[in-house]
Design brief:
Blueprint lengths: L9 H6 L5 H8 L3 H8 L10 H10 L3 H23 L6 H6 L4 H16 L4 H8 L4 H11 L12 H10 L10 H18 L13 H18 L2 H13 L1 H14 L18 H13 L2 H18 L7 H14 L3 H17 L1
Helix pairs in contact: 2-3, 5-7, 7-9, 7-10, 8-11, 9-11, 11-12, 12-13, 12-14, 13-14, 13-16, 15-17, 16-18, 17-18
């Protein structure tokens, strides 16, 4: 059977296996009358009970795959229709060809719907805040991407404009952990695509809000613009402002799920950075020189204070920094990587 999600009755799913209604009832343990009611109905998934569906999935090949594919297809079609009514067209080939889990991508499309509708509600903040994490970030990256064949939207510029309009309104009234995360996520994605610190994103809100939003903008701009001076300004800001340093230290471990996401932005005193180490090693080989400078000058030294073993990957980190540092043309980056490598060798 195919798993394209097109509506199929139980009889169609089981036909190629040579199973009749009595066979399905016998294997699943369901009454024949129950199977009869579902047998020729293409909408049977909307009628079957959870317990009966479990019995069918565990006893009849293809039922589980069909159920998942159909549910994904149904949600996808609804989102495509809703987004089209808001002026956004989904690139179905990019959606289906992505290496990101379809569920994450559909969540990203639903986030787009929240954003373009412009409802600065607690529900919107809460939904967008759930994209704090590596795989969720990959889904949003595909949503905001302008790269043909990768971006989920054929023309995402309305999404950019809506994001910029929505961001300042997410936290007008009271402090909200979800609104802070949502602000960071929105500004990060927009700045990653535009490569600029847009003035419209630079509104002022007190304390952690400003610090966390600034980090989102800086990281996005670093990834897209390779601006070494921006990386250096960010390092100096962290040296001068403890709250910036605290949020920087919090961000990686919670993003990679080494640490629990906490509304007070704190980490446990003892924390092994296993997932963080893997992510940093990936980024050293994947991102541009300015971002590598940020890692070597700013984040990695902070991480070593929290976990001197760097998730048990000090040797791999030394090798990665040596190889990548040698490739960098700017002497500041090479010198920074070399100094850090010397420190790490003393710790290994």
């Amino acid at each position: 059977m195919t798993t394209d999600g097109e509506p199929k009755s139980l009889s169609e799913i089981t036909k190629d296996m040579g199973l009749n209604m009595s066979d399905v009832a016998a294997f699943s343990g369901l009454d024949e009358s129950t199977v009869f009611r579902l047998w020729d109905n293409t909408e049977w998934l909307d009628r079957v009970s959870g317990r009966s569906l479990q019995s069918l999935m565990s006893s009849v090949p293809g039922i589980a795959e069909y159920s998942m594919a159909h549910a994904i297809r149904k949600r996808r079609d609804a989102l495509v229709t809703d987004l089209h009514s808001e002026g956004l067209s989904v690139d179905l080939k990019a959606l289906e060809g992505s290496t990101v889990a379809q569920q994450h991508l559909l969540n990203a499309l639903e986030a787009a719907l929240h954003i373009v509708r412009g409802q600065a509600t607690q529900k919107t903040s809460s939904f967008i805040a759930r994209f704090w994490g590596r795989e969720q970030d990959r889904a949003l990256e595909a949503l905001y991407s302008t790269e043909r064949g990768h971006g989920l939207l054929i023309d995402p510029h309305r999404l950019f404009e809506s994001s910029i309009e929505l961001a300042p309104r997410l936290n007008r009234k009271t402090y909200s952990f979800h609104s802070i995360l949502a602000l960071n996520i929105l500004t990060h994605q927009v700045s990653k695509v535009t490569g600029a610190l847009d003035a419209d994103l630079g509104f002022q809100v007190p304390g952690r809000q400003t610090a966390f939003m600034m980090r989102g903008v800086v990281m996005g701009s670093l990834i897209s613009s390779n601006d070494l001076e921006l990386a250096e300004r960010y390092r100096k800001e962290l040296d001068a402002t403890p709250v910036y340093a605290a949020l920087e230290e919090w961000s990686f471990p919670t993003y990679t799920r080494d640490g629990r996401i906490s509304s007070d932005f704190t980490l446990p005193s003892s924390l092994l950075l296993h997932n963080t180490a893997r992510e940093v090693l990936r980024e050293i080989t994947s991102y541009n020189d300015a971002y590598v400078y940020y890692l070597a000058s700013t984040y990695i030294p902070l991480a070593l204070k929290r976990d001197p073993t760097f998730g048990g990957k000090l040797t791999e980190l030394i090798q990665a920094l040596q190889l990548r540092g040698d490739e960098c043309r700017d002497r500041r980056i090479r010198d920074t990587c070399n100094r850090l490598v010397g420190r790490l060798k003393g710790m290994a």
